[in-house]
Amino acid sequence: LKMFWFYLPLHLLMVACLCHSIKVPTASSQQSFKTDLFNFYHSLILADGKETTVHLLKDIPKRYYFVLGEGRALAPFTITVTPCDVPIEWSIHVHKASASFLGKAAQGDLDTQEDATSQKAPSMVSTIFNYKGNSVETYMGMSSHSALYMLEFLSTERDTHITVYFTTDTISGHLYPELPTDPRLDVVGIGHTTVTLTWKHSPSVLQHRENIQYCLLVNEKHNYKSLCAAETAIRSSGMKLPPALALSLSPFLLEPQQVMILSNSELSIINKASSGEVRQICVGTKNTHTVPNLSPSTQYYFDVFVVNLLTNASAAYTGTFARTLEEPEPKVMELKDGKMIQVVLDGKKDKFYSLRYQAMHKKIQFSFQLCHGQVQIHVTKNGKTVALENISGLRYFSLKGKLLDTYLVQLRSTEETNSSVKVQVSSHFHKPLFPLLPESLKIKSFSKLRTCNSVTIAWLGTQEETKYCVYKKRIEEDQVWRELRNADRCSGPESRPKSEKVLCKYFYDINLQRAVTTETIQGLDAGILYLFDVYLFGPSGIPIRYHSKVVKTRKKC
């Protein structure tokens, strides 16, 4: 047993001395204490040059150990602790034991326990560092004696985890990228939906450009002092993050709550949650970035992390915040009674176009004709909603109120492409701007009546005698979708070449069930696609375009 203590290395012997100086085991447990000493040592010793993840239970301290000074006159070391959630308390204690006591331990004096309670090691235990908070803290020290060091960690708020990096290679053992002497972010531009940031380059980027990149975090809640803390906060809201934002290293699967955006060679991940969103943008080695697609009049918090792509280790710049500019009051156009206007809406900006009308009569009628795309209308009277819906084709709203009631019409494109709509408000119900419409504006074709040079089409009419004009256009297979989608339903036949005109005719029927007309178009080519349009003209001369119909003639007859 004495030989067992003699052959123990110095740093393990010092662990035993520390344990002995605090509390010596009883005779009955002495053998198990020595047997478990190796397990104690290996489970709590900090690995040199590696990052260790430490899980902490609330109000239960956790201790880790390392030994310095063995065989070296001076032993420099560095310890970096990164809280990943709540503030923690941590401290460094050093235990220095005298050589005579170590000698007694080697000679087996630890085997005699008669006066164990009174036997104390002639040593000194001191606290050299302590900290409380959630910032990333680094302690740099120098050991001139053989000493055992103990790190103690405590979380008083809740269970959490931290990372601890310990190294004695203070020259080349840099796990974390370096920050510049001034690690602050500068806001150099603020718009309604954008914020432009700049920061000083990390020395690591200048030295190892191919292995380092900057990643930007944007959210509406607060700044994060470490990437570890940001990941923990996002996961706690029910989302999953790619590890350490090394987004350009390897492909990964996005969670249902995530959206990936690739723009201008920059990869963005937006994590959507009920509490908002956290946007992550990795920008390579650029030290200036404009964050787009923000909401007006909203405060955002910005954090930049310099990330080592090989180790996923990161260092945080000092975060900042900025408030986007308020949305300018939308310009409101005044509507005049009986006058029709056409409005083009930008789908990409997702903005409302506003029209205002002050009633000069108790009864008024709004008319909307969708020309292109998809449009949502919102009509309010004195601030209260009276109509809200997506329109298609032609739509009327007859409203009753008081003189001088103020109506506000807001129009918005529900597609990312541009949309357009015609709007008219009138108090003269007896002079309708648009003609009376049939139940359906669809054109029907008869497959059995198709030949190699003719097709037969039909459409519904009304109880009023009305003029109808038919136009045809020869198209290719790959043009069908584009022609149908981009058709301007507000444009009249005046925009068509005269060569496309087939005929014009008048008809009506008092019985709506018989208000149907057919027309056979002759002189077509075999096996060719044709686009047919029918225009209806009312008393005001404004045309209504039926839904276009594509028909293909037979190849063989």
TrEMBL record:
GO biological process, one term: nervous system development
CC annotations in GO: extracellular region
Coiled-coil annotated spans: none
Keywords: Glycoprotein, Neurogenesis, Repeat, Secreted, Signal
Signal peptide start-end: 1-21
SMART domains linked: FN3 (SM00060)
Domain of life, per lineage: Eukaryota
Lineage of the species this protein comes from: Eukaryota, Metazoa, Chordata, Craniata, Vertebrata
Keyword Secreted: yes
Localization: Secreted
Record PANTHER family: NEURON-DERIVED NEUROTROPHIC FACTOR, PROTEIN NDNF
InterPro entries: FN3_dom, FN3_sf, Ig-like_fold, NDNF, NDNF_C, NDNF_Fn(III)_1, NDNF_N
Molecular function terms, GO-annotated: heparin binding
Protein name: Protein NDNF
Protein species of origin: Caloenas nicobarica
Biological role: Secretory protein that plays a role in various cellular processes. Acts as a chemorepellent acting on gonadotropin-releasing hormone (GnRH) expressing neurons regulating their migration to the hypothalamus. Also promotes neuron migration, growth and survival as well as neurite outgrowth and is involved in the development of the olfactory system. May also act through the regulation of growth factors activity and downstream signaling. Also regulates extracellular matrix assembly and cell adhesiveness.
Sequence ranges assigned to domain Fibronectin type-III in this UniProt record: 177-314, 435-543
